[in-house]
Structure formats: C-alpha cells, structure tokens
C-alpha cells in the first residue's frame, strides 16, 4: 500500500502541473482566428429536392458600400448562413452577390456544402464585369485585388 502511494503521488502531481500550464499558457491549444460575418439579406430560397436527394439554394446579397469583402469574410459569412439555415439538406448552395448585381445572373461567390460542411468555395471575378464592383488592376501583376490586398482564389476544394 505504501509503495502505490509513492508512485501515484508523483504522477498525480505531474498531471496537475501539466494541466495548470495548459490552462495558464495555452500550451497545445490553438485559438481559432476571429471570424468576420458580413451583413447580408436573403434574396431568394429555392428548394431543389429531387427523389432521394434534398438540395437547397440560397441567393444572398452582401451588404457593403465601397469595398469588395475579403475572401475570408465571404467564406465565413457563407459558413454562418449554412449553420443558421441548413435543415439537414444533402446539398446546400449559396450564391453570393454584391449590391447592384442581378441575383438571377452569375454570382460573385459560390459556396457548396454537403451534410459534413463546406466542400467548395469559389470567387468569380468575371461576374463583376460591367458593374461598379469591377476590380481595379494592380500595377505590379495586373491581377485584381480584394479588400485584404490579396489576389482572390478562384476555386478551393476541400
């Protein structure tokens, strides 16, 4: 009995010190970066359910006045919309538009979800042509830039 106490005490003490270090210094924990959820309104909801596959499509207008939101902010907003409105659809697609864009034409942002989460995210600069949102060209690369100064990713697959 005395031998077991001598072994358990150091192990218990070590575990307590380790847990205290994690709590105080955040060791082993990665903080999630703050998410920027943009203001938006839902223009249209369309149920595309066929046979055994349920599918919902949302067309949303992003509220912004002067700058095109960053890719990260648009992705975070799409995730928030999906979390709030997904009613266990097999597929859920969000078409994202900027003010003054026609919501029945080509979308600037497209997010596709399945039951597990985001599967595809895409920004389409071509959708901005002929609108007040058409990107100015950067002098160094000739590529369009977003609010965060980065060249937008055209297509992301998870």
Short description:
The protein is an alpha+beta fold and 158 residues long. Helix content is 25%, strand content 25%.
Task: Describe what you observe in this structure.
This protein has 158 residues and is α+β, with helices and mostly antiparallel strands. The chain is built from two helices and six strands. Strands 1-2-3-4-5-6 form a six-stranded mixed β-sheet, covered by helices on one side. Strand 4 (109-114) and strand 5 (117-123) form a beta hairpin. The protein is globular and about 40 Å long.
Radius of gyration from the alpha-carbon trace, in angstroms: 23 Å
The 3D shape can be described as globular
* Unreliable runs: 22-31, 137-142, 153-157
Q: In DSSP terms, counting alpha (H) and pi (I) runs of 4 or more, how many helices?
A: 2
Q: Helix-strand pattern, N to C? A: HEEHEEEE
> Level of helix content?
10-25%
| N-C termini distance | 55 Å
Average the pLDDT over all residues and give the rounded result.
Answer: 77
Side by side, the strands of the main sheet go: 1-2-3-4-5-6
How big a fraction of the residues is strand? 15-25%
Number of strands: 6
The profile of the biggest β sheet is: 6 strands, mixed
Structural class, please?
alpha+beta
Key terms:
alpha+beta, 158 residues, disordered C terminus
């Amino acid at each position: 009995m005395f031998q077991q106490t001598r072994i358990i005490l150091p192990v218990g003490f070590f575990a307590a010190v380790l847990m205290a270090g994690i709590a105080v210094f955040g060791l082993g924990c990665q903080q999630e970066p703050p998410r920027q959820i943009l203001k938006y309104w839902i223009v249209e909801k369309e149920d595309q359910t066929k046979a055994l596959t349920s599918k919902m499509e949302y067309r949303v207008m992003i509220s912004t006045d002067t700058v095109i939101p960053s890719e990260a902010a648009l992705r975070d907003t799409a995730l928030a919309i999906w979390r709030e409105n997904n009613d266990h659809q097999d597929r859920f697609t969000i078409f994202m538009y900027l003010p003054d864009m026609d919501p029945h034409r080509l979308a600037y942002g497209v997010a596709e979800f399945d039951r597990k989460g985001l599967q595809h995210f895409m920004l389409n600069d071509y959708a901005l042509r002929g609108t007040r949102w058409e990107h100015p060209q950067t002098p160094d690369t000739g590529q369009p830039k977003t609010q965060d100064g980065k060249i937008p990713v055209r297509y992301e697959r998870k």
